[in-house]
Amino acid sequence: MTTTDIAPIIELRRASFGYADHPVVTGATLAIRRGEVVAVLGPNGSGKSTLVRGLLGLNDHLGGDVELFGQPRESFTDFAKLGYVPQRHTLSASVRATVTEIVAVGRLSHHRWWRPVIRSSQDAAIIDRALDVVGLNDRAHADVATLSGGQQRRVLIARALASNPDVLLMDEPTAGVDTANQQVLSEVLARLAARGTTMVIVTHELAALADIVTRIVVVQGGHIAFDGSRDEFASRTGEFASSADHHHHEDESRGARPRLPGAPSSGPLDPQGGARS
Ligand SMILES: Nc1ncnc2c1ncn2[C@@H]1O[C@H](COP(=O)(O)OP(=O)(O)OP(=O)(O)O)[C@@H](O)[C@H]1O
């Protein structure tokens, strides 16, 4: 392995993110390396989405450092390397588009904007492969409005995959999806993990992903309260029980107080924000 292989592809050092001048996530220190499958857990409103969106530059960066592929995020431009599947996002029923057309949007970042987008045969092959991974080849020409919520999530994952990202960041990919479709989605994620895809997955359904997750990060009250292996996490299940498999309830999500106990003074918890190496 060369140094570039082991250098983190995402690195936060005491990073803070929020909205306007209001910090929501503070002092987050985290390094994600190639091949890792990281589950981000935590109570509703603890700041998981703010953390993921923050490292992508989608909210305000209020302190500390963010490096993407070894470069400060402020000067980083190659966002095609980061595939993002946003939270609670399905495709609008008012937009008439086929599955292929939506997935093709993932190719846009590979085309210079001033040129008309002419899909090459290489693009077509990549789109095909992305649809194959999410098991939607047979719906390629279907109108997206005719798909179920779970299928639409898979279209969005395929769109992210079509940009050939180095890392996939997914915000609750299985939320609001029925059990059968959750199973299909877990299989999709397992297939991606088997291909060595680096993934950061915000989830309340750890059980569905337990086989593929290599590392768990718990966000609690805007801090990284735990960062460790599945085994370390399992040995502290009691402490973090409410972080995993806590079903999402929209009503209690905003402004909810963290339900997890306070950080103890020893062990993998770091009250300063998780500065562990
Ligand atoms: N667009 C926004 N503008 C202002 N404040 C926001 C915004 N989005 C989130 N917040 C604040 O940040 C806090 C954390 O929200 P965030 O969505 O990051 O939590 P979460 O852990 O992802 O929650 P959930 O599990 O419910 O998705 C919220 O309680 C809210 O106060």
Automatic annotation (TrEMBL):
Q: Which PROSITE patterns does the annotation name? A: ABC_TRANSPORTER_1, ABC_TRANSPORTER_2
Q: Can you tell which superkingdom this protein's organism belongs to?
A: Bacteria
Segments forming a coiled coil:
none
Q: Where does the chain cross the membrane?
A: none
Q: Which GO terms describe its molecular function?
A: ATP binding; ATP hydrolysis activity
Question: Is ATP-binding one of the keywords UniProt gives this record?
Answer: yes
What Gene3D superfamilies does the entry give?
P-loop containing nucleotide triphosphate hydrolases
**Which residues lie in Basic and acidic residues bias regions?**
244-255
Ranges for the region named Disordered are: 237-277
Keyword list (alphabetical) reads: ATP-binding, Nucleotide-binding, Transport
InterPro entries to which the protein is assigned, alphabetical: AAA+_ATPase, ABC_transporter-like_ATP-bd, ABC_transporter-like_CS, Metal_Ion_Import_ABC, P-loop_NTPase
Show where the ABC transporter domain sits. Answer: 10-246
Question: Which PANTHER family does the UniProt entry name for this protein?
Answer: METAL TRANSPORT SYSTEM ATP-BINDING PROTEIN TM_0124-RELATED
UniProt-recorded name of the protein: Metal ABC transporter ATP-binding protein
Lineage at the top is: Bacteria, Bacillati, Actinomycetota, Actinomycetes, Micrococcales
